Amino acid sequence: MEDAWDIIVEGRAIVASGGRLFSKGSNRVPTRLRQAFIARIDREIAVTLTSQAARQADTADVVVEHVIPIKRIVIEVIAPEAHDPRTGGRAMTRLGPARDLAHAERIAREMLTKAYVTRAEHDRLNIASQSFQWDAPAGDGMARYRVAGIELTAI
Q1: How many domains does the chain have?
Q2: Nearest alpha carbon to residue 65 among 115, 113, 112, 109
Q3: In the chain, helix, strand, coil percent, each to 5?
Q4: Mapping DSSP to helix (H, G, I), strand (E, B) and coil, where does residue 132 land?
Q5: Which domain covers residue 124, as residue numbers?
Q6: Organism's domain of life (predicted)?
Q7: Do 104 and 4 form a contact (C-beta atoms < 8 A)?
Q8: Are 53 and 118 within 8 A, CB to CB?
Q9: pLDDT tens track for 89-113
Q10: Which of helix, strand or coil describes residue 28?
């Protein structure tokens, strides 16, 4: 397994050289950090929100959705200023960049929120606005749901 801190440092070097973490020039840094680090944390986070449609749907038609996309969380850990400008967002509340792996974990835990939605709602979220499957305006995951017309409630 790759060392998560080495991936974070590599991501910062890409950003410092003018590269982007949300495009093909990222050397798969977001994917690699998700696999090496975020996935473990994600498994420990319970689903706490649901849409009305997901409450009523067959379980085969329900998926778990990250309210703030994982790629946005990865970017916040590595370099918050590297968010995808196509979302019209600004850098988040500046939880990051992570100072060390413990701080990176705190950022991920604070940002990871999961919701049950139907497959159709999931598709609507991803096409509601350019780049919503990778980022959220100003890191506001709920903005994606507002634009897609999906209301979430606590489980």
Answers
A1: 1
A2: 115
A3: 55, 10, 35
A4: coil
A5: 4-154
A6: Bacteria
A7: yes
A8: yes
A9: 555 557 889 999 999 999 999 999 9
A10: coil
